[in-house]
Every structure is written in structure tokens, then in C-alpha cells.
């Protein structure tokens, strides 16, 4: 690790598994601890959202794909966890590399539990989650003093693949100023209907960002009532982050990627003329 800044870098030992977040996509958002892990691993077991540019930092490592994508044939979670156990018991230096943060809707906790139950030593390396960074790349702060003092992160599907029934969508609609939805595109029409039924205004601002932080990132601005139709009309595909709330209006002023391309902000202070009563 002599190419990293001086630091007491941890060593990935044989027989250990490090569960590491690769960040939301842009290789520059990988942490230095993540890079340290990549440089030491014998085997990398990686997810669908981990890009080649990140894996290329580990030319010495054997790669094993273990991606799970909704609606497509995927490895079973139990098999992935037991494969990690098997590799560790072979004395390998194992890096389990997951998109975003392994503990934010990434099932990293389940894998860590299995490893601990089988006596395999682990290290957790947090990553930057797309629910924050992806929206930031779209010019949307998930918190803003003039908008919200809380943000709620939810998943758009449960273990069965259906829209989560254990969530109190009506309670979330009433109590959550800004809602960030992971993996929600498949059920967005149902989720939006539940939020509206819970008291959220149909005109509530919504933003949908796909392939967040990558060169082909796309973002649409819509409303709660129209979001399902607008997603379909735009031809957006997962992975996506959906943000519900007035914070999305700030993209009109803070779309820094558009400004870097020479486009002026659409509104210097979009919140000034859109009071809460107007947007629910």
C-alpha cells in the first residue's frame, strides 16, 4: 500500500472476510479503506452494481460474481453467504464488495451474521450510499434547513419482491418530510398511491435518478401523482433512487453538473416561491 498516503492501514489476513461498500458507482467515491482492501484481496465476491473500473484496482484477485438483480436469475443469498465461509476456510483473503453501503438495504448484515456464526473473522468497511450520493450528484440535498429536519430511507420491495407490507406508508406520508426510496421503480405506482392516501399531496415534488453518479446518470423531475407515468414515458430502468419531498425543488438551483456544462441555474431560490401549502 505504498501508493496510499501514510496511515496505519489494516491488513487483510488469510481466512478473513471484509464486507466492503464500493459506493454508488463513481470509482472516485470508493473509500481509501476500500482501495486498501482491493489491493490485498485474493478473491473478490462482488455485486451487480460494482463497476469494472473499481475491480480493475485488484488485478491480482480472482473475481466471483454474485449479483442479485430484481426480476433476473440471481444467486441465492444463503449460497452467497456460505460461499464466503468456504473461501475463508480455504485460507483466502476474501473481499465481499457490495454497491453503496453493505448495511443499507444491501443484506450485508445477513452475510456478516452467517460468517460470525461459522467462526469466520470479519471487518466491516462502510461505503457511501446511493440514497445520499446519487441525489447529491443530481443536485438534491437530502437535508436542507429550510425544508426538512428529517429524512426517511425505505426500500421499495420486501424479501418476496412485493411492495413492503410491513411499512406504515400512511404513517410515513404524515411524518416524513423527505422520503428516499431504494429499489422502488417496480412498485412506484402502488407506493405513490399509498403516500397520497396517507395525506401527501398529488403535486408533491418527486425526483428519480438512475445509474447515479455514473456518466450515463439520468434524472427526471415529476410529481407524486405523475411519477409512475413519467418514469415509463422516460424509459428509465433500474437501478434508481426516488426522492419524494420539497428538497427535490433545490435541483433547480443546485444542478451542478448542468452548470459545469455551461447551463445557468433555472431558479436561484426555488423554495422562496413554493411554500409548503402549495406542495403539500
TrEMBL record:
Domain Tetrapyrrole methylase: 17-225
Span list, region Disordered: 261-280
Superkingdom assignment: Bacteria
Annotated metabolic or biological route of this protein: Porphyrin-containing compound metabolism; siroheme biosynthesis; precorrin-2 from uroporphyrinogen III: step 1/1; Cofactor biosynthesis; adenosylcobalamin biosynthesis; precorrin-2 from uroporphyrinogen III: step 1/1
Molecular-function GO term, any one: uroporphyrin-III C-methyltransferase activity
GO BP annotation list: cobalamin biosynthetic process; methylation; siroheme biosynthetic process
EC number assigned by the record: 2.1.1.107
InterPro entries given in the database record: 4pyrrol_Mease, 4pyrrol_Methylase_sf, 4pyrrole_Mease_sub1, 4pyrrole_Mease_sub2, CobA/CysG_C, Siro_Cobalamin_biosynth, Uropor_MeTrfase_CS
Primary enzyme class: transferase
Key words of the record: Cobalamin biosynthesis, Methyltransferase, Porphyrin biosynthesis, S-adenosyl-L-methionine, Transferase
PROSITE patterns: SUMT_2
Biased composition (Basic and acidic residues): 264-280
Family membership: Belongs to the precorrin methyltransferase family.
UniProt-recorded name of the protein: uroporphyrinogen-III C-methyltransferase
